[in-house]
Amino acid sequence: MMNANRYILVCLFCFLGGCVNSEVYAANVLISAIYGEGSHFLSAASIGLALTQRGHNVTCLISNAYAHHTRDPKYASFVFEVFEHREPPEIVRQAFFDLNKYAFQEETSGQFLEIQKHMARRTVDDCESVISNKDILSKFLSVDVLLMDVSWPCGLYIKAMLDKERAESKEVRMVALISTPPWSGFLQASGSSFNWAYQSETMSTFSNRMDFWQRMSNVFHSCVIKMILRYVATPPYFQMERNVGLDININPWLDYAHFDLFLLNVDFSSEFPIPLSPSTIAVGGLTTRPSAVLEPELEDFVQSSGEHGVVVFSLGTYLASITVIRPDLVRMFSDAFAKLPQKVIWQLKELPDYDLPPNVKTMPWLPQNDLLGHPKTRAFMYQGGNNGFQEASYHGVPVVVIPLHGDQYDVAARIEARGMGKKIDKQDLSTELIYETLTEVTNNPSYTTVAKKVSAINKDQPMRAPERAAFWIEHVIKFGGDYMRSPANELNFFQYHLIDVIAFLIAVFVAVLLVLFFTLRFCLRLCCRMIGWGGPTKSKKD
Length: 542
Description:
- There is one protein chain.
- The protein has helices spanning 2-21, 38-53, 89-101, 110-132, 134-138, 154-165, 184-189, 212-233, 235-244, 296-303, 322-325, 327-338, 368-372, 386-395, 408-418, 431-443, 445-459, 465-479, 493-496, 499-530; strands spanning 28-32, 57-63, 79-83, 145-149, 173-178, 261-264, 280-282, 310-314, 343-347, 360-363, 377-382, 399-401, 421-423.
- The chain is α/β, with parallel strands linked by helices.
- The longest helix has 32 residues, at 499-530.
- It is globular, with a radius of gyration of 30 Å.
- The chain starts with a helix and ends in a 12-residue tail after the last helix.
């Protein structure tokens, strides 16, 4: 008995010693993902959930317009810090509704652009509200790492205010998350290279195989985006800095040189191959997971589809109210679905004033991931969000994409280039085109074959995307990200592109040519003089 007790004590001390040596501790993580709604929030929140499962403390900054998440049991492990807009919450929600309302109109619509500019001004005002609030900042003083969605760069200013307020010198680790397909500014800020010859710029609509004019357009498009960010989107943040007494003088959209980690929501089973620096980690599929059992009523509807299966249709959270926005499109989709042998599950909040086809079931909210993982799902038709693309890739479902705005065109380019589905231009929508495209994707086995292969590659990994993101965040908490940081951002434009080296080599080459030229000319003249070719011959009398 004495030996047994001694053995137990030795094992206990070894276990405790192992825990101490592993340096595992609960870190304080702050997540800033725009206002706390939509795909950007869902991507960041999935990382937060993985971190809480590993014992860390997660605080999520959201706006009072979307405070309903604070009551969601799914996020019970989070601490929510709610900030207030300078406008009533219903006006903020209406602005997002209006932005999507005009998505079915021409991209040059003046009203659509005006709404975008108004929202850009609002994000700066909201950032100023957050960093001016001493009560909120005081709750962030113990933060160890800040996870920031780059679509709202307020996290940079939160860190600057914390650095200013902290009595002790405790560094906040910075992690950047991009929830969309990659764009050149993000990749270059992370120290990764970007080559416009085969890497398509965000919102360019191009694949990675471009002809001359597409490459020309790709470069021009990238320059326009960066000029807008530098000269239009950045000055309001400079004014905000002056208002709150900060002097960091950075471009909030392009200057991420001192971030420790960059998380990219893409998976190379479906993404174009691109070179990444060691500090840039692909974590595509943040919202994916094995499908759960459907509710009995929904399961019965799916099973009633027989061998034809079901089509899942969604235009996203905001356009679930398309009945109010564009009732003519509801009729168009309804008439197309009536011709299909498949049954259709449609995310639709408001029903039209007429009966929909018997093969259509509408729901105000879809368990999208669970439906895509169901064996009877034959196709997924949607607006082209990156999370939906990752979920379809994970579950191996062919796609019909109707891109409406922004990066959705980039997703459509990837779907078609990979052979996972087909695109419908929103300006070409018709009952016949919708029916024909869905029929093509559901009946042609090539789309399903490609989608299943993408799914197999996607799942053949040692850990899921949220766990991978959480692992790397833990890693930079322990060790920092300096050792992974590329020196690319320390170089100016001429140094990075070796323009100074090329210019020097050209100068040397030209100098050598000149030396050779003048040497050869001198030798030729000397030889000519020696053999009497140097000028007129003198007479004997002279």
